[in-house]
Amino acid sequence: MLNKMLLAGCLLACLDGSAWAQPAPTPPSPPPSQSVRLSLAIKAGAEVRTHELVISDRGCGVVKDKSPQYEDDVRICSVPMTNGLSIELEGFTRAGATEYHQRSQVIVARKGGSFEVGRTNGMRFAVKTL
Question: How far apart are CA 122 and CA 107, in angstroms?
Answer without folding.
Answer: 23
